[in-house]
Specification:
By secondary structure, this protein is mainly α. The chain has seven helices and no strands.
Length: 198
């Protein structure tokens, strides 16, 4: 992935498309998280948990906006349009992962599929973000880019820690972490294959 990212960053037009893709993926994640919130936020312990989910969704929406705004820092014409990289794989990334995890949870007779999908899908995605965003930030720094995603990387690491704490409370979810990451790895390989500069 590092070589692909280096090639993507080297071309301002492709880099703009990469930022548009990250913005789109963050938006998809934010929408999925927001949809997992219950219609009524309740009180007490339930409120604390829902409040964390609400905060997580709001931060992902902000990340989508941040990536979108970074495009203006590239040396390209403002009228340039940015095609999302990764095609249908990017569009269906979270949906495919969620479906695979839901199937695994049903096979293991897990009672709360929505909760399990939220936790395991988020876990796998945050693990990927930690890796990809870390590499991306390193390459940006090496090229003295005006773009930095250090603050986003810190927040994603914080999200991962919160999710790990919640997963640790249920044995079945702890056992499902490796499966969730394996499913995500399959989709990530398809995504990388669909990227330019392969």
């Amino acid at each position: 992935m590092e070589q692909r990212l280096a090639k993507i960053i080297a071309d301002p037009q492709t880099h703009g498309c990469w930022l548009a893709t990250l913005s789109f993926l963050e938006l998809c994640g934010a929408k999925k998280i927001a949809s997992s919130l219950s219609a009524s936020l309740g009180h007490g312990e339930a409120w604390v948990k829902e409040s964390r989910v609400l905060q997580h969704a709001s931060e992902e929406f902000r990340h989508a906006y941040y990536f979108h705004k970074q495009i203006a820092k590239l040396s390209i014409l403002p009228t340039t349009s940015f095609v999302q990289l990764g095609g249908r794989v990017a569009v269906r990334y979270l949906q495919r992962l969620d479906l695979m995890i839901a199937r695994m949870l049903r096979q293991n007779q897990y009672s709360d599929i929505a909760k399990g999908c939220y936790l395991l899908t988020t876990y796998a995605i945050e693990k990927r973000a930690e890796s990809v965003y870390g590499t991306y930030e390193k390459l940006l720094r090496a090229q003295n880019s005006p773009i930095s995603i250090a603050s986003i990387l810190r927040e994603e690491c914080g999200h991962l820690q919160q999710i790990e704490e919640e997963i640790a409370q249920e044995t079945l979810l702890v056992r499902g972490k490796d499966d969730a990451c394996a499913y995500e790895q399959q989709i990530f390989i398809d995504f990388c294959t669909a990227l330019p500069c392969g």
